[in-house]
Design goal:
Aminopeptidase, alpha+beta, 7-stranded mixed sheet, globular
Length: 176
């Protein structure tokens, strides 16, 4: 049976919570998640709980936000993250992670579209930034579909311990 293409209206973002931990733990086993995110390799035991606790604490002080993306049936399809929210400068960094079963169905585009709308409306962003490994061409296509502009490449940036990458900087403004 062919899996249905997901649109923005098919996806709901809900605050990352305890009930999402098994799904987040499963994401941490995916090689693409480890390759293209800042998750340490290998993830330490219980990393999903540490991640949740970080986002819960940051939610309290307004410096970051984490959401689980679920489809209309309540199935977990990924994460929608704002790892950095600078309230003073009104700049927000966003990121998204799609569960393997939801890939190739428009989930990343739908998640980023909703997350972008949230950043402008709820976080008051005047500039949103995405940092995407240039090897992650699928993610770059998602950014372009969501109206982000590719500003350039940061060469050999420190991405995580023992890993340097070339990363494209993508941005979006309310006027875009």
């Amino acid at each position: 049976m062919k899996k249905r293409y997901l649109t923005r209206s098919d996806i709901r973002l809900e605050p990352l919570a305890e009930r999402h931990l098994p799904d987040v733990a499963a994401l941490l086993e995916d090689p693409d998640v480890l390759r293209f995110t800042r998750v340490p390799e290998p993830p330490p035991a219980g990393f999903e709980r540490l991640w949740l606790e970080r986002y819960e604490a940051a939610r309290e002080d307004g410096t970051a936000e984490g959401f689980a993306a679920v489809d209309s049936g309540g199935e977990f399809i990924g994460l929608a993250l704002a790892p950095t929210i600078d309230r003073e400068s009104r700049e927000v960094e966003l990121g998204y992670v799609v569960a393997p079963a939801a890939r190739g169905r428009g989930a990343a585009t739908a998640i980023l579209a909703q997350l972008t709308a949230w950043a402008f409306s709820s976080a008051g962003a005047l500039r949103i930034v995405l940092i995407i490994d240039v090897a992650n061409t699928a993610s770059e296509r998602v950014a372009a579909r969501c109206g982000y502009a590719r500003e350039g490449v940061l060469r050999s940036i420190h991405f995580k311990p023992d890993k340097r990458i070339d990363a494209a900087i993508w941005s979006r403004l309310p006027s875009d």
